[in-house]
Amino acid sequence: MTSTDIPAGAPGGRLPQRRRIVTEIPGPRSRELHARRTAAVPPGVGSVLPVYVTDADGGVVVDADGNSLIDFGSGIAVTSVGNANPRVAERVKAQADRFTHTCFMVAPYESYVAVCEALNRLTPGDHEKRSILVNSGAEAVENAVKIARYATGRPAVVVFDHGYHGRTLLTMTLTAKNMPYKQGFGPYAPEVYRMPLAYPFRWPTGPDNCGPEAAAQAIDQITKQIGAANVAAVVVEPIAGEGGFIEPAPGFLPAIAAFCKDNGILFVADEVQTGFARTGDLFACEHEGIVPDLVTTAKGIAGGLPLAAVTGRAEIMDAVHGGGLGGTYGGNPLACEAALAVLEEIEERDLTGAARRIGEAMLPRLRELAAKHPAIGDVRGRGAMIAIELVQADGTTPDPVLTAAVARRCHEAGLLVLTAGTYGNVLRFLPPLVIPDHLLAEGLDILTEAFAKEAAA
Ligand SMILES: *Cc1c(COP(=O)(O)O)cnc(C)c1O
């Protein structure tokens, strides 16, 4: 056993679950690799923290210089079951020894079907469902729009402020933020319309009536600007991810979903970041009892193997003509085995409960920190999807400079944190759901220290 309380064979049971910093961050070996990378990879592909990873397990990421960092990122909400989770690794290895690819469109295999059966069973709503498997979140969202347009015969797609849906032409168009996602990459896809999101911290009349007011405004704009009968789908993240972990104010999503239902518009929940236990529910839609017509999933689905899915009402999914959907690698057998392992881990380790406990541990400490530092304007999130929004002395103007400075301090101390937000002023925390309590607490200590150094009390 390498750690005091984690058995071998469990997530976190292979590498010591300790922060250990032996060089500056990034260290000399990482800097050397970074020089090689700079000559081989264009700067358009960035890295939050250029430490070059050699190993990872449980709550730690080990770099080429032998530093062990605390992981508050999970590779952007992907390795929720822990990196190289033993059950995932075993099933992938066994599959790699059997066959690695046939293309499901050429000659199918059982694991693809088993993943779809599980998605059909586990996503919100007890209606009959179907699923397709693809490679990335963006590809899932693109397919959801294709299916919605086909099934409704309508062209328009409605999205929201602060939304993020990917980097392909269509999903970049659906995405709200220009820099860095859209700048210079236009012209964008037609028939995409953006509506206000119920952002409690920044709603002009305050948070109390934000949900109903934002919904009324969005519905009015859809009706007046597009015409409800022209709308195929509303695509929305139940908690805006890249946009800064914005939980739409209560009542907003149910009102939009009801409007969709009344007008034959498909409600598409983009659960790519929020799905698979991350928010303390298996899917974030469950929080307000939303039953989407279509759900897109990716990130946490397969423990790091590239896999994504669209799951939806059988009659909608079945509408598309034979051969109209697919792709060479969609539902790759290694990724399907990984997904089946992830679903077992979520259930057996009660990772929805683990996510809730992570939120319960983090929120009070972050609120305490916010009480000390006026720069923390908002503390929010659910489960293990938690964020703080940083503002200037007036209490509202975004402070991306301080956000970057605090993130840098955390990185230097060996805590991997991510930033987010339309204004770049959000620190977001996405620890693996299997992170040991002591690493979670130590990560928060590092954050506290970073604020003590960078922010006014
Ligand atoms: C990350 C993300 C996507 C895009 O997923 P990729 O796998 O990067 O293409 C889409 N929607 C949401 C909500 C995301 O967080």
Structure description:
This is (S)-3-amino-2-methylpropionate transaminase. Pfam families: Aminotran_3. With 457 residues, this protein is an alpha/beta fold. It folds into two domains: 28-71 and 350-456, Alpha-Beta Complex (Aspartate Aminotransferase, domain 1); 87-348, 3-Layer(aba) Sandwich (Aspartate Aminotransferase, domain 2). 37% of the residues lie in helices and 16% in strands. It has helices spanning 28-40, 74-77, 86-98, 110-122, 137-152, 169-174, 210-226, 252-262, 314-317, 333-348, 351-372, 400-413, 437-454, and strands at 53-57, 60-63, 68-71, 129-134, 156-160, 192-195, 231-236, 266-270, 294-297, 308-313, 376-382, 385-390, 415-416, 418-420, 426-429. A hairpin with a 4-residue loop joins strand 2 and strand 3 (68-71). The longest helix has 22 residues, at 351-372. The protein is globular and about 60 Å long. Pyridoxal-5'-phosphate (PLP) is lined by residues 136-138, 141, 164-166, 237, 241-242, 270, 272-273, 298.
Topology:
Elements: H1 28-40, E1 53-57, E2 60-63, E3 68-71, H2 74-77, H3 86-98, H4 110-122, E4 129-134, H5 137-152, E5 156-160, H6 169-174, E6 192-195, H7 210-226, E7 231-236, H8 252-262, E8 266-270, E9 294-297, E10 308-313, H9 314-317, H10 333-348, H11 351-372, E11 376-382, E12 385-390, H12 400-413, E13 415-416, E14 418-420, E15 426-429, H13 437-454
Parallel strand pairs: 3-13, 5-6, 5-7, 7-8, 8-9
Antiparallel strand pairs: 1-2, 2-3, 4-10, 9-10, 11-12, 12-15, 14-15
Helix pairs in contact: 3-10, 4-10, 7-8, 11-13, 12-13
The chain binds pyridoxal-5'-phosphate.
